[in-house]
């Protein structure tokens, strides 16, 4: 009987330790005080977006490399968020990274994109999202060309191209 009680006590202690360990801290939120946010439910986004767009923008998916027509788009114009239309990148900052994803060395306006730390796939990367609707765009890496040395590696499906008039 005594043994049963001590086993029970041990179980309580272990449960206490598990609770104290708790869930991991929430990831830092993107900073964009200027832009007014657009908030919609998953069901609303599903109605507005294609399944491919939804997978990338709302579920942090990644399109297959070399599948976006925007990868080889070298026209002059602006790349806007496919979900909310906010201008995100300009053809002026686009470069050929050879990765198979549309790549830019800077956003059109630093307040139009937000970043967060992405620790998935056993690596730490900087996730990039639209500052207005929170839609996932891609990641930014420190191996881009001058003048910034940054490479914004974007999913073409998250962007819409508007040609300059
Ligand atoms: Zn957006």
SSE blueprint:
Blueprint lengths: L1 H20 L20 H7 L2 H7 L19 E5 L5 E4 L3 E2 L7 E2 L8 E6 L6 E6 L5 E6 L9 E4 L4 E5 L2
Antiparallel strand pairs: 1-2, 1-9, 3-4, 4-8, 5-6, 6-7, 7-8
The site of zinc ion has 8 residues, from loops.
Plain-language structure description:
The protein has a six-stranded antiparallel beta sheet with strand order 3-4-8-7-6-5, with no helix packed on it. A hairpin with a 5-residue loop joins strand 6 (125-130) and strand 7. It starts with a helix and ends with a strand. It has one domain (37-163): Metal Binding Protein, Guanine Nucleotide Exchange Factor, Chain A, CATH 2.170.150.20. With 165 residues, the protein is of the alpha+beta class. The protein contains three helices and nine strands; from the N terminus they run H-H-H-E-E-E-E-E-E-E-E-E. The chain has helices at residues 2-21, 42-48, 51-57; strands at 77-81, 87-90, 94-95, 103-104, 113-118, 125-130, 136-141, 151-154, 159-163. Zinc ion is lined by residues 81, 83-84, 86, 130, 132-133, 135.
Summed up, what is this model?
This protein is of the alpha+beta class and 165 residues long.
Count of folded domains: 1
What name does CATH use for the topology?
A: Metal Binding Protein, Guanine Nucleotide Exchange Factor, Chain A
For this structure, what is the CATH class? Mainly Beta
Order of helices and strands: HHHEEEEEEEEE
